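G., the chain you wanted modeled:
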Amino acid sequence: MLLPNPEEQQFRDYVLDYIDFYLRFASIGFVLGGTEMFVNLLRERGKTFRQKRYDMAAKQKSKRLKRWITHFAGNITNGTVYSMKKQVHPQQVSASVAINGYIVRLLARENMFWVSLQEELYYLQRFREMFSIFPIQFKIPSETYQHQVMPLSLLVLYKNICKHGAFDTDAPAASFCVVASPDRLVVTTRNTISSDAMWVYNEGGTGLEQLRGLLLENHGDNMKFEYGMEGNRFWLRLEIVYNTELYNQMINNYGKKTACVTSDGSR
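Predicted structure as tokens:
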């Protein structure tokens, strides 16, 4: 019986130990790599699920906002006809065309949740031209601080005064005031309610609660919306805070880029 050569035995043992070491090392790497791939896969599936859920919520929100904008378009058409029956002016016709064109563009936008305050104020002034027969004290800021608002929200508040206000000589003056600062936007309105519309307010009507719900969806806890009656005088206050982390997150989620207009309305 021949004994193995010690040197050959050492070499074989070395080779076997070498192979065993690297196989163990490779198996550990394989397990770690597989675990990382599995974790990344679960994470990606979670992101996909959250994105789908977010997209579905955004679509539902878009539908609600489109219905609201369409309803507003119908209201201003009726209001324009009523206003023009009393007094027809070329400026009213031009403003009506501008507002309706703005609404059509809003409905066609991919991101319709936000517009710049600058754009909203421009069309608010055009909207005011449509109802120039109503004497309303009017104040808006010259600096908008790149704030974003829900489209048509200020126009709806102005329309509410025109639709339900009393403008006879004995009634105190109605007012519409917008104040902007670097961190917030405040809108206040005051007007006397006409006797024909008083029952609507007593029943909690005027669609302001629907507006509150939409504003809450857009601005969340950064928004305060209050209104009430003092005798036959109606008051309203809308405040939006812009310097919060929650607001910035909402803006980033829904997309901050919106079309802007200059003071003459060009894009």
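The two ends are 100 Å apart (CA to CA).

Shout if anything looks off.
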